[in-house]
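Reviewers of the previous submission asked for a worked example of the structure-prediction workflow described in the proposal, so we include one complete record here. The input consisted solely of the amino acid sequence. No template or homolog information was supplied to the procedure at any stage.
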Amino acid sequence: MRDIYNMHTFLTERKLNVGKVFKLLLRYYNEECRNCSTPGPDTKLYPFIYHAVESSAETTEQPGQKTGT
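From that input alone, the workflow returned the following C-alpha cells.
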C-alpha cells in the first residue's frame, strides 16, 4: 500500500490529471509491453512513470528562469 500512496502523492504534487496519467500508461504499453517476448516487461511501471514525469519536468524548466511567479 505504501507504493501506491507514494505514487499518488508524487502525481498529485505535480498536478498530473487523469488524462496525463492515461497517456503515460499508453506510452508505457507502447514502449515497454507491446513487443515483449517475456511474460512481463523489463521496466516496471512505477519506475517508468517516475522517470517519465521527472524528465518531462526537467525539459519544461528553463535554467535561470523564475518559477511560481
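The two ends are 36 Å apart (CA to CA). We consider this example representative of the routine output the project will generate in years two and three.
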